[in-house]
Structure formats: structure tokens, C-alpha cells
């Protein structure tokens, strides 16, 4: 509760926290809109494969022309100006930089940028949850060993969920479940970029005019993004996925304590301490009353009859037993809130959520019968969707992570609904992302064998 105070102190001392943003898309643009009016924060540079897009993003969110420096990333910007360029590595290596933000959304790029940040002694805020789920537990461990912070991105749902879990535990409550809301029906798992827009109430032409990427939007619909985000939450909090992954129960905010309790007590959880995503739609397509489509939640349990009475006395909404209650936040503001992670990492040396172990994985799962020789097209595409799986099960079957299921060729046919494995595809073992993932898997197997 003192981040603003710490930022003001840095501002007054003329030593702002210097930040480098990689990726000038929607998330990055929203951060830039708020960063320019946050005392004690200075965006030293913005790196994007399309520098013109980065400049346009700065201009669109209100950055004055005189604050945009026409210099290379390796050069020294004039005081108060922001460098623009395509060389992310040069930005990371900049001597004046304190915190790196990866907002690329590309798993391999995120891993490369995190490793470079760690090597150069910079804190890393990983907006790129795809990279975090692919190798975050190993990256976070490497960051700790190097004495820098690896952090999930506040404003994105995994970090907000981790915060709510931390609140509950710091209050002495046992966490029963935590997660987020989304729009879900079982048929969405087969959705493709060609079928996605009617589910959003748009025509393909309207989407095109709005500059919307059908594959990206489809990843939100087909369950992949939910799997990725809940794997990140599991890895950061110690909560575990159910054996069959997410079941997406329809649930409104008033029913959280009733629905998200164990099946043995009338709820829909496989076990206490579970990650789960709730749907804003009933299975017949009707909207859920008071849904949590854009928000996050935590369900917690009264540890005693005394606390149970306190729940009743202070008006908490509970399940019929009075033992379970919930806290929720109805929205998340993505990049508009990202400054919390930057300030926390740079001024406190603390992450806003970070993986502490490999507990959940997002596994490539066939959308249809796939044939030998086909090319997989990754998250949100035509061939596979990402299914949440306990990491122990993923390691046991040698599952192919969704983050590496892009532009790889099938060695053999795979039936619809089956989880793909490393042996099903032609893998580029020279890839840095593959090498780091293999290292994390080997480390996790060794830790499990030693336990």
C-alpha cells in the first residue's frame, strides 16, 4: 500500500524507475497510456518488430512528439525521452534500464527476452503468459539465483488471482478454489478462426475493420487461453488442476461458494485447493445471472465455528453450510494496471505472482482427426487447442505443450480429442525454447524422483 509513495520518492530524487517495453500491441499500449502520467516511472525504450507501430502506439495514447527519441536502442536518450526501435536485445542490455516488460505474446521470444534480462541483471515482468506456462518455473528459478525478480503481470488475470489467493492465506483462510470467468460452451473447443466471429456477435468484415486477429480471439474462445492462465495460477500458487482439466461450471458471483466446493459436499470441485474457470453461459446457451465473465475470484473456508459465525455476522455470501465464502473482482484492466508489477519489482524487489513449481500444463489437444504430415498452427488455430493438465500427467505421457505446437509437422495421425505428445511431431531440438522446456521437464522429473 505504499508503491505510490515509493514512486514519488524516486521522482523527487530525480531517479525514476527506468522501464523497457517489448511489444507495442494492445497490452503494451494500455501500459504506455498510464506510464506517462505515473511520477517516478520512465519508459526508457519501446522495442517492436515494427518500430512504426511502436511510434504509432505512443502517439495514439498521448505521448508528446518531443518525448519520442530518434536514437538507437544502444544510444543514450535525452532526459525524459523514450527510445524506439526493433532491437529488443539492445534495449535489455541498456545500462540505464531497471525493468524489462515482455508483452510480445510469442512464447519463444518471451523465453529469449527473460533469459537476456536475467543475464543482464534486469527484473522481468512477463505479460507473455504463453512463455510463462511453457518454461516459467525454470525462468523464475534462474531469476532468483541471479538476484532479480521474475513476475507475472498485474492487470492480467493470473496475477490478480494470485493476489487474491495470497490475501486469503495471509488472513489465515484455506483456499478452496481460485480462478476466473469466461464465456464457454463445450462446442467451443472445436472453434476455428473461420467460425469464431459469430460467437462474438461480429461479422468477419466488422472484425477485419476493427483490426481483430481471428486466431488470437479464437484462443480465448476455444479454451486455450483459460488453460494457459490456470496453469500459470497453479504454478504460482500451489493450487492444483483437476485430473480432467477445467470443467467450466456455469456460475454467477452469488453462487461461487455453493458451486466451487467439493463434490462430496454438493459442489463441483474434484478437490479442495483447485484452479477452475467458471462460465458466463448455462449449457443451453442462456446467460448466467450476475456472471463473472471478465473477473477473478477466490473461494475460502471458515476454519472454525467461530469464524463461520463471523461470516454470518458480517453479511458474507456463503454456501448453505455457512462455511464457504468468496471474494471476487468483476473486471481486470490488463495494461492499465501493469505499473503495479513494474513498481513492485523495481522498488520492492517483489513479484506480483511468480511460479514456484511446475504443477499445471497447457497441452496441445487435437480439434479434429489430424493426419501424418499436417502442420500444427498452434494457439487459437485450426488444428489444436490447449487443455489444462496436471504437470505430473503431462510429464508421464510426454505431452506436447501448446506453446510449441506451432509450425511443427505431425509424424503420425492423431485422433480428435487426443493429447499430442513430443513423439507425435518433428521437433527442432536446436530451438532455444525447446531446449529450455526440455531442461525444465528434466529438472521436474528429477525433483519428483527425489521426493
Characterization of the model:
With 451 residues, the protein is α/β, with parallel strands linked by helices. It has 3 domains: 3-156 and 335-348, NAD(P)-binding Rossmann-like Domain (Rossmann fold); 158-184 and 223-331, no CATH class; 360-450, Type Iii Antifreeze Protein Isoform Hplc 12. It is 35% helix and 17% strand. The strands form 4 sheets. It has a 7-stranded parallel β-sheet with strand order 3-4-2-1-5-6-7, with helices on both faces. Helix 5 (107-119) runs parallel beside helix 6. The relative contact order is 0.13. The mean pLDDT is 94.
The computed structural class is: alpha/beta
Low-confidence stretches: none
Please identify the top-level CATH class of the largest domain: Alpha Beta
Multimerization state: single chain
| Sheet with the most strands: spatial strand order | 3-4-2-1-5-6-7
Give the C-alpha Rg.
Answer: 22 Å
Tally of extended strands?
15
Determine the N-to-C terminus distance. 38 Å
- Tell me the strand percentage band: 15-25%
Shape: globular
Classify the helix fraction into a percent range: 25-40%
Q: Sheet bearing the most strands, described?
A: 7 strands, parallel
Just name the CATH architecture of the largest domain: 3-Layer(aba) Sandwich
| Count of DSSP-assigned helices | 15
> What is the averaged pLDDT score?
94
- Sequence of secondary-structure elements: HEHEHEEHEHEHEHEHHHHEEHEHEEEHEH
Number of domains: 3
CATH names the topology of the largest domain as Rossmann fold
CATH superfamily annotation of the largest domain: NAD(P)-binding Rossmann-like Domain
Amino acid at each position: 500500500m505504499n508503491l505510490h509513495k515509493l514512486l514519488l520518492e524516486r521522482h523527487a530524487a530525480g531517479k525514476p524507475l527506468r522501464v523497457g517495453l517489448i511489444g507495442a500491441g494492445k497490452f503494451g499500449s494500455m501500459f504506455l497510456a498510464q506510464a506517462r502520467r505515473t511520477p517516478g516511472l520512465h519508459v526508457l525504450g519501446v522495442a517492436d518488430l515494427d518500430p512504426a507501430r511502436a511510434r504509432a502506439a505512443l502517439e495514439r495514447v498521448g505521448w508528446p512528439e518531443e518525448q519520442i527519441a530518434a536514437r538507437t536502442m544502444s544510444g543514450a536518450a535525452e532526459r525524459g525521452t523514450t527510445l524506439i526501435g526493433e532491437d529488443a536485445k539492445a534495449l535489455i542490455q541498456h545500462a540505464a534500464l531497471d525493468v524489462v516488460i515482455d508483452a510480445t505474446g510469442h512464447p519463444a521470444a518471451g523465453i529469449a527476452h527473460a533469459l537476456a534480462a536475467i543475464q543482464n541483471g534486469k527484473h522481468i515482468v512477463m505479460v507473455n503468459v504463453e512463455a510463462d506456462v511453457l518454461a516459467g518455473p525454470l525462468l523464475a528459478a534462474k531469476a532468483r539465483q541471479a538476484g532479480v525478480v521474475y513476475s507475472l503481470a498485474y492487470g492480467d488475470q493470473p496475477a490478480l488471482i494470485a493476489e487474491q489467493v495470497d490475501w486469503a492465506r495471509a488472513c489465515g483462510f484455506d483456499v478452496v478454489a481460485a480462478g476466473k470467468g469466461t464465456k464457454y460452451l463445450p462446442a467451443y473447443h472445436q472453434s476455428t478462426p473461420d467460425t469464431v466471429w459469430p460467437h462474438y456477435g461480429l461479422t468477419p468484415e466488422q472484425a477485419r475493420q476493427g483490426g481483430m486477429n481471428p486466431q488470437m480471439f479464437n484462443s480465448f474462445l476455444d479454451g486455450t487461453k483459460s488453460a494457459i492462465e490456470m496453469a500459470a495460477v497453479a504454478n504460482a500458487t500451489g493450487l492444483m488442476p483437476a485430473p480432467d482439466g477445467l470443467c467450466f461450471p456455469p456460475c454467477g458471483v452469488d453462487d461461487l461458494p455453493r458451486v466451487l466446493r467439493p463434490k462430496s459436499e454438493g459442489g463441483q470441485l474434484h478437490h479442495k485447493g483447485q484452479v477452475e474457470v467458471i462460465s458466463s453461459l448455462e449449457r443451453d446457451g442462456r446467460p448466467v445471472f450476475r456472471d463473472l465473465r471478465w473477473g477473478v475470484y477466490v473461494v475460502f473456508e471458515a476454519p472454525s465455528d467461530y469464524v463461520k459465525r463471523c461470516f454470518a455476522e458480517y453479511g458474507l455470501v456463503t454456501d448453505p453450510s455457512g462455511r464457504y465464502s468468496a471474494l471476487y473482482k468483476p473486471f481486470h484492466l490488463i495494461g492499465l494496471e501493469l505499473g503495479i508489477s513494474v513498481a513492485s519489482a523495481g522498488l520492492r524487489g517483489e513479484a506480483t505472482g511468480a511460479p514456484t513449481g511446475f504443477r499445471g500444463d497447457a497441452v496441445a489437444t487435437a480439434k479434429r482427426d489430424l493426419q501424418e504430415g499436417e502442420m500444427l498452427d498452434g494457439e487459437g488455430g485450426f488444428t489444436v487447442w490447449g487443455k489444462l493438465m496436471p504437470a505430473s500427467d503431462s510429464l508421464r505421457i510426454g505431452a506436447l505443450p501448446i506453446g510449441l505446437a506451432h509450425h511443427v509437422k505431425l509424424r503420425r495421425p492423431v485422433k480428435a480429442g487426443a493429447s499430442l505428445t513430443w513423439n507425435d511431431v518433428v521437433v527442432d531440438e536446436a530451438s532455444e525454447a525447446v531446449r529450455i522446456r526440455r531442461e525444465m521437464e528434466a529438472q521436474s522429473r528429477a525433483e519428483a524422483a527425489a521426493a
